[in-house]
Specification:
The protein is an all-alpha fold and 497 residues long. Helices cover 59% and strands 2% of the residues. The two termini are 21 Å apart.
Length: 497
């Protein structure tokens, strides 16, 4: 019988007992399914063409808070406290410094909550707890603070193209702010979205959708109504069902310490994406074939994850919205050691379990070593096709092993069992990574004023000119590479529920 306790409602305890799953997980899934139905109702009956944005904000916020209280009880008040104090900071401090104060407060408040949950209450007790949604709210608070700072204080010529596109030129009202942070579509599992995209959706303003032209650039289009999301939602629900089935059968037959428990993340994040799509949020325009793209705020690309042939490829396709957050608030603004700073921020954001820090320290080493290997050897295997195929097979196998090796402390949480695992491997991948960095030449790259100019981080120019293949927002923001190792860990345990 599932014995895990919950801080939220126990109304569904009989269902929890029947399906042999912890009550907190049952609450989460049922609430997300309710949110899916609410999203369909929201799109049909509270469409922006029928209802004012004020009503849409109110309903989205109240539904979100109801779901939060059902899942987490009075602990959900933390969401309002964190959002409310952050809003006061923005209003009182002003655009010049609000980003710094909001960043320190929001991350600090999250960290205090994580410390009390881990070290004052039961260590590792809950598989779904209130700090999960707070992690997403922290992303939204800090992202918006930087976007307002960019839009209301910095000069346009000081901003990168993506920063200009995301810049917010006026202070949000309190209702808009709480709605953005706590709406029912994203309060339980995210994903992060830009404030401008969310407000455009709520207000129903015409969007400048894009279509890829033959030269690879995106061309703006107007006058086409947003298509029905039904097909996209159905596809994502199918992925959810398959992921859940796999998780409940094959994955559960093995201890988590010996397998990579991805299916529950595929399920949770794909369902969250489907909820937003069902409400009409997430449309990113049409591709060159005129097919609607509903991946504006999608969080992962499963096929690319499973077929990753490098750390970079894995990181570029896993928990993409969090990766973009790390890029925007840390990597491209860091004055020194952006990769290390980004990994460190990722570890702090994830929580206070020591295993998280071991994972991200290892992740820094693995990422730098993989980059050095790729820069020094990949060009030798570009031709002929058979040689390239062999290279891809080998790098795929190495990538899967190194990722699994890296994230074990994230699953085990504590230092002692993590070090026992690494010692059983004789720290072989750590040693290999250090040797690679010592023996192979590292290409020197010049960081310009903006980190997006760095060859390490930037993708090829043609990709910069298009939206990121995930289209995280409608303003052409490139996906990042290093910032994402944060989700390496997230790939497994109880992280972003």
């Amino acid at each position: 019988m599932a014995t895990t306790s919950t801080t939220g409602s126990t109304l569904l305890q009989p269902l929890s007992n029947a399906v042999q799953l912890p009550i907190d997980q049952v609450n989460f899934v049922v609430c997300q399914l309710f949110a899916l139905l609410a999203a369909i109702w929201f799109r049909i009956y509270l469409h922006s063409s029928k209802t004012s944005s004020f009503i849409r904000h109110i309903v989205a916020t109240l539904l979100g808070l109801y779901l939060a209280f059902f899942c987490f009880g009075w602990y959900a008040l933390h969401f309002l406290v964190q959002s409310g104090i952050s809003y006061c900071i923005m209003v009182i401090i002003g655009a010049e410094s609000m980003h710094t104060y909001c960043f320190v407060f929001a991350l600090g408040y999250l960290t205090v909550c994580q410390i009390t949950r881990v070290y004052i209450f039961d260590y590792g007790q809950y598989s779904a707890d209130f700090s999960g949604p707070m992690m997403i709210i922290t992303q939204k608070i800090t992202s918006l603070a930087y976007e307002i700072h960019d839009g209301m204080f910095r000069k346009d010529e000081e901003l990168t193209p993506s920063q200009r596109g995301l810049a917010v030129r006026r202070m949000p009202s309190l209702l808009e702010y709480v709605s953005y942070n706590c709406n029912f579509m994203g309060i339980l599992a995210g994903p992060l979205c830009s404030y401008k995209d969310y407000i455009t959706f709520i207000e129903g303003r015409p969007s400048y959708v894009t279509q890829a032209s033959e030269n690879g650039k995106e061309e703006a289009q107007q006058g086409r109504a947003d298509p029905s999301p039904n097909a996209a939602v159905s596809d994502k629900l199918l992925v959810c069902g398959l992921s859940l089935l796999f998780h409940l059968t094959i994955s559960n037959a093995l201890p988590v310490e010996y397998n990579i428990d991805e299916p529950k993340y595929y399920f949770a994040w794909t369902l969250a994406d489907a909820i937003n799509n069902a409400a009409g949020f997430g449309f990113r325009g049409y591709d060159r074939n005129g097919v609607a793209r509903w991946d504006l705020i999608s969080n992962l690309r499963i096929q690319q994850i499973e077929m990753s042939t490098s750390f970079k490829m894995f990181l570029d396709n896993w928990n993409i919205q969090t990766a973009l957050w790390l890029k925007r608030v840390c990597y491209e603004r860091a004055s020194f050691s952006p990769t290390i700073q980004t990994f460190f921020l990722s570890a702090i954001w994830h929580g206070v379990y020591p295993g998280y820090y071991l994972t991200f320290l290892t992740g820094v080493l693995m990422t730098l070593a993989a980059r050095a290997m790729r820069n020094n050897f990949r060009h030798y295997f570009s031709e002929p096709p058979l040689l390239k195929f062999l290279y891809d097979v080998i790098t795929w196998a190495v990538t899967q092993v190194s990722i699994s090796y890296t994230v074990v402390p994230f699953v085990l949480l504590s230092v002692k069992p993590s070090l026992m695992f690494y010692s059983s491997w004789y720290y072989c991948l750590h040693i290999c990574g250090i040797l690679v960095l010592l023996l192979l030449p590292v290409k020197k790259t010049q960081r310009g004023k903006n980190a997006h100019e760095n060859n390490e981080l930037s993708r090829p120019k043609k990709f910069d000119e298009r939206e990121s293949s995930l289209g995280q927002n409608s303003f052409s923001t490139p996906n990042n590479i290093c910032s994402q190792n944060q989700d390496l860990g997230s790939r497994h345990s109880l992280l972003t529920q």
